[in-house]
Amino acid sequence: MEGSIQLLACLVCVVPMGSLVRTKRDTTGNLLNTEVHSVPAQRWSMQVPSEVSAAAGDAAVLPCTFTHPHRHYDGALTAIWRAGEPYAGPQVFRCAAARGSELCQTALSLHGRFRLLGNPRRNDLSLRVERLALADGGRYFCRVEFAGDVHDRYESRHGIRLRVTAPPRIVNISVLPGPAHTFRALCTAEGEPPPALAWSGPTMGNHSAAVPGQGHGYQVSAELPALTHDGRYTCTAANSLGRAEASVYLFRFRGATGVSAMAMLLGALGLKVLLLLGVLASHAARRRLEHQITQETPPRPQAQESSYENLSQMHSRGPPAATCSP
Length: 326
Fold this sequence. Notes:
Elements: H1 2-13, E1 23-25, E2 31-36, E3 45-49, E4 51-55, E5 60-62, E6 65-67, E7 77-83, E8 91-97, E9 105-109, E10 114-116, E11 127-129, E12 138-146, E13 153-155, E14 160-177, E15 183-192, E16 196-200, E17 209-212, E18 219-224, E19 231-239, E20 242-250, H2 258-296, H3 300-316
Parallel strand pairs: 4-14
Antiparallel strand pairs: 1-2, 2-3, 3-6, 5-11, 7-8, 7-12, 8-9, 10-11, 12-13, 12-14, 14-15, 15-18, 16-19, 17-18, 19-20
């Protein structure tokens, strides 16, 4: 009897108490995060990979599966994906399935690029993201909500990091005015991994200072603080996926000084005065010509009046009236 009691006590010692958290690897070898909510044999948990990587322009699949403590649940449910942070981040996808239905009707798909691949009825919330852009990189969190009498919900707390890779692309290069009539050049490029920037130009004394881009971790900027010589300045961006180049040109106007500058100014003013005098003389000559033509033209109204008078006289001298003789 004592032996049986001791064996039972040993069995009780190996039973795990409280919540259990396990980690395993998916079929691609990525580490899966398993998040546990409660202690029953069938409990809330979510399995997601720690990171998914895809190239810009392609599609990516964000896997997410879950378990729940309800053995046979066929009530209404909602599947949600958030970006940025759990529980409070903006929703990028949402669909709802009616009671007993395996069809999850899409209610929200940001820019129409998010599509549910999994079947929530079968504990699969996997999502597909189309036409990836660098701005899509970040963390995404899956969530499922049960409605009706159960009214239960669960959301991934650690999420999946989506890494979007891309070769370098220079998005802006420009020459800007600096202090004391100087000029500076600024180059901004994007890519993942973030590219390294380098300047080359007509002088070796210039140096570049790379600073992170504002608002996006995949953007970097490099500035040439002083352009001391005219010519071509080239910005080169490079990462493990490729390189890109863009150039700007600086040509400053250098005017003459002293007597030469005064002579150029007076010459320009004299030319303008001569042009103005020529225009005025031409205008006066045209006015005189018009006046002479007006004086030499015969008075047409008088000729018309004389013709009218002669015609009247001709009518008044008509043949004598006929007389009748007895």
